[in-house]
Amino acid sequence: MNNYEMMVIFTPVLSEEDFKAAQNKFTAFVKENGGKVVHENPWGLKSLAYPIQKKTTGLYWVTEFTTPSDFIEKLKIQILRDETVLRFMVTRLDKYAVEYNARKRSGVATGTEKAEV
Amino acid sequence: MAKSNEIKYLTAIKTQQRAKKFCRFKKYHIRYVDYKDAEFLKKFLNEQGKMLPRRITGNSLKYQRKVADAIKKARQMAILPYVTDLFK
């Protein structure tokens, strides 16, 4: 079992319900395959730094989960088949990243605030 | 009259020492560089959105690599631009 974080950009044309449904579809898929969803964070509509598929905005969704490593390939196939997804990225989290995310969620200072140039 | 053994300089000697650079990751105990935090990563970019060298930021090699990875991830996910002008 490893810790992963997935960020997905959905097309901005999705309605609120469609966006929710798409999230539920992937979380259900994670749970079905013996994974555990640690956290979900829908950022919502956000402007992109550069256009993707001629779209300048996207619906961001970040989720953190623990699954066996062979599940990620299956998950990728499912996402690639979904036409509402503009782009996605799965990142494996090390122990420091898990700690960082937990601290950020609970609102504890992560140390990056005072690191001024 | 100046003595003959006194050394004269054409320009004034620098007396003020520049503050020593430090690695902010080591100093503040930051162990993970988050690719989702665009405001933090912007500190390591110039106005064209290019990455600043270690010479300027003072990062240690270990964390400069991690910053590079985080910036590349952020660019892929359209959180940071690849190329731009008047970024900051």
Commentary on this structure:
- Chain A is α+β, with helices and mostly antiparallel strands and 117 residues long.
- Chain A has a single domain (2-105), classed as Alpha-Beta Plaits.
- In chain A, a hairpin with a 2-residue loop joins strand 2 (36-52) and strand 3 (55-67).
- Chain A has helices at residues 16-32, 71-81, 95-105; strands at residues 2-10, 36-52, 55-67, 85-92.
- Chain B has a domain at 24-76: Ribosomal protein S18 (30s Ribosomal Protein S18, Irregular), CATH 4.10.640.10.
- In chain B, 32% of the residues lie in helices and 0% in strands.
- Chain B contains four helices and no strands.
- In chain B, 23% of the residues are buried.
- The model of chain B has no long low-confidence stretch (mean pLDDT 86).
- The interface between A and B is medium-sized, with 24 and 25 residues.
Q: What is the secondary structure topology, with strand pairs?
A:
The complex is a heterodimer of chains A (117) and B (88).
Chain A: E1 2-10, H1 16-32, E2 36-52, E3 55-67, H2 71-81, E4 85-92, H3 95-105
Antiparallel strand pairs in A: 1-3, 1-4, 2-3
Chain B: H1 24-27, H2 38-41, H3 54-57, H4 61-76
CA-CA gap between termini of chain A: 38 Å
Q: What is the CATH H-level superfamily of the domain at 24-76 in chain B?
A: Ribosomal protein S18
> Which strand order spans the largest sheet of chain A, edge to edge or round the barrel?
2-3-1-4
Please give the largest β-sheet of chain B.
none
